[in-house]
Amino acid sequence: MKAVVLQDVEKLVLQEIPDPSLSPHEVMVRVKAVGVCGTDLHLYKGHGNYHLDARGRPIPLSEEPQILGHEFSGEVVEAGSEVEDLKPGDRVLCDQGMSCKSRGRKPLCPYCATGNSHQCEFYGEHGITGLQGALAEYIAMPAVNCLVLPPGMPMDLAALVEPSSCVLHANELAERTTARYTFDGEEQIQNVLITGAGPAGLLFLQYLRNVKHFEGLIVVTDVREKNLELARKFGGTPVNVTRQDLREAIEELTQGKRIHYLIEASGNSVVFEQIPSLIRKQATILLYAHGYKGRDIGVLANVFFIEPILVVPVGGSGGFDPDGRPTTYRRARELVNSQTLQVAPFITHRYHSLGDIRRAFEEDFQREDYIKGVLVIE
Fold first, then answer.
1. What does the DSSP assignment read for 31-64?
2. Whole-angstrom distance, CA of residue 2 vs CA of residue 258
């Protein structure tokens, strides 16, 4: 089959690779849609590498290339001999994380047993930790990782259930963390700042407005007017940081109270220099983005000085439904399908073949009008 292989930093090659083998508990999925994620860009640029050896050291791409693609949907073309609830022709989206449930392990490890599936003791992740991702014609996935799509749900929107599930997990992890300021406690969150109006930032904004029904101030920053217009549409107060001083804007908008809850979704390390002037002491900081590069870790000293709660979520972690499938993904699927979380408005670029996908990394990510790209294969 054909696949797009990241052979080294900034070296994507379309090539023939062996077809995946199918285990009895797996289904073979013909890939129909793949979201291109900021994490993919970090891997492509060499700003991150989550494929580690037994000592916890990153394995260079030149030694073990990676097939990217962890946001995806497709059509089942074959079911393993032990699969009873999926069949050829079923349209599915997938949780790319390999947990105890995925591997059929009993008993569950302590992480899977407590609803932390993406921290599984035996974890692996398609498209990120060396396992084959979805930028290929086919991918073999455990049946319990696959959710059937509601009738009429488009494949491209189904692929973006994955980042939506990550946003659900991130917010819920932050809410479970003991913090001074909360949404429903004695000292309530009144002011939120989301840095970055990319897909993640826009999903966080919709989650707070449409799922949490938070009615307070949500400031959203970016440098791109198109993104900020979407932030305004979804109920945020946009601030273009190339036109306004962010510290001054926050002082004015919050009447000097500053920010109770900061969600970092930009991946720009300059944010860490600004944080001490933006948040209240003992505020909560949700560090969602990855791939930071170019700043000395010493910039965090002044952040630590004001005793924030730092929350660092990863993936669409969560528990399992009675059928063994991931609860967080099932909830995210319903939120996307009902348009409680709207993902279609920020799909700005579509690619129609595996050969086209290089353009996303080599050109489109740098474009002013780019928000989210999706590969859609008819």
1. EEEEEE-HHHHHHHHTS----B-TTSPBPPTTTS
2. 51
CA nearest neighbour of 140 among 150, 148, 132: 132
Structural domains present in the chain: 2-160+343-376 (3.90.180.10), 166-311 (3.40.50.720)
Cα 182 to chain centroid, rounded: 23
Q: How far is Cα 80 from Cα 88, in angstroms, rounded to an integer? A: 11
Kindly give the residue spans of alpha helices, DSSP state H, lying in the chain.
38-45, 100-103, 110-113, 155-159, 161-176, 199-206, 225-233, 246-253, 271-274, 301-304, 327-337, 358-362
| Average pLDDT for runs of 10 along the chain of length 378 | 97 97 98 96 92 94 97 98 97 98 96 96 97 98 98 98 97 94 95 97 98 98 96 98 97 98 94 95 95 80 95 96 97 98 97 95 93 95
Half-sphere exposure of 144 (CA within 13 A, CB side): 22
